[in-house]
Design a protein that fits this description.
This protein has nine helices and eleven strands. The chain is an alpha/beta fold and 279 residues long. The protein has a single domain, classed as Divalent-metal-dependent TIM barrel enzymes (TIM Barrel), CATH 3.20.20. Strand 3, helix 4 and strand 4 form a beta-alpha-beta unit. Helix 3 runs parallel beside helix 4. It is globular and about 50 Å long. The N and C termini lie close together (9 Å).
């Protein structure tokens, strides 16, 4: 199992220093990661930028594991959204990324439940993954965005799409955003996983706190979460990754850090912990 990192994990450092993707590539290699994934590339010609990033990663010996982009398939002009995600597949291909994660929905139209929303999105997801397949890219969605974050719901979407080219980016920490047990959720996700995110959260039951701490955000049920260094929080990282290892997962395990701690020190500590868990 290779250990990667998301460019998202450098967000705090990038904001502090003003650097961009080209600067964090050698930094990720220096820190000891095997691979990197990039969030959506902006600009007038993202395909050209992707080719340059691929060259930069090749120069330092860093694999590109995935390209991750946002989307809400049920908001705005749906045809334009599909076309945009097809362009994102072109960018992923230019990067040489084997996997493109795209979100599907973070807010349902008024009066629509998640099953109705799923039925409307499925034909769109099929078009996107069919196009990406022609480019040599597999697509996936993540347990992310509250609406389709529960493992049962993500599994239903994958079953309804019914295309081997469309699978699951399993984020072991994100299940806590909907108060789901990560170990149980990972067991359900294992057959569909083509990419893995690991992150850690401090998790606090709101009814157990006399005073609510700052810096936390609420789960679906009103409990509290805050990102932290891997191994310092309440996500059962060891148990979850053990399940992946036992299932024979041989893809990339990509670190996502979104805590309040100092960015680069947090990445070093998180990577050291992740190596101990994986190895």
């Amino acid at each position: 199992m290779k250990i990667g990192v998301s460019s998202y994990s450098f967000a705090k450092y990038m904001k502090q220093t003003g650097c961009g993707y080209f600067e964090i590539v050698p930094l990720a290699k220096e820190l000891g990661f095997d691979a990197i994934e990039f969030l959506e590339i902006s600009g007038d010609d993202p395909v050209a930028t992707a080719k340059q990033l691929k060259q930069r990663c090749t120069e330092v010996g860093l694999e590109i594991s995935a390209y991750t982009v946002g989307a809400n398939l049920l908001k705005g002009d749906r045809e334009e959204t599909v076309k945009h995600l097809m362009l994102c597949a072109d960018v992923a291909a230019a990067l040489g990324a084997p996997v493109m994660r795209h979100d599907i929905c973070s807010a349902l139209p008024e009066g629509m439940d998640w099953e109705e929303g799923m039925r409307e999105m499925v034909p769109m997801i099929r078009r996107i993954t069919a196009y990406a397949k022609e480019k040599g890219v597999r697509t996936c969605s993540e347990n992310h965005g509250r609406i389709y974050q529960d493992s049962v719901r993500v599994e239903r979407v994958i079953h309804e799409v019914n295309d081997e080219n469309y699978r699951w980016l399993v984020d072991v920490g994100n299940f806590l955003c909907v108060d789901e047990d990560p170990v149980d959720a990972v067991r359900r996700a294992l057959p569909y996983a083509i990419h893995v995110h690991v992150k850690d959260f401090l998790y606090r039951k709101v009814d157990e706190l006399a005073v609510l701490p700052e810096g936390f955000f609420k789960t679906r049920n009103g409990n509290l979460l805050r990102g932290t260094i891997l191994g310092h929080g309440d996500v059962p990282v060891v148990e979850c990754l053990k399940l992946f290892k036992e299932a024979g997962y041989d893809g990339v395990c990509s670190l996502e850090f979104e805590g309040a701690e100092e960015n680069l020190d947090a990445l070093r500590l998180s990577l050291a912990y992740l190596k101990r868990v994986v190895e």
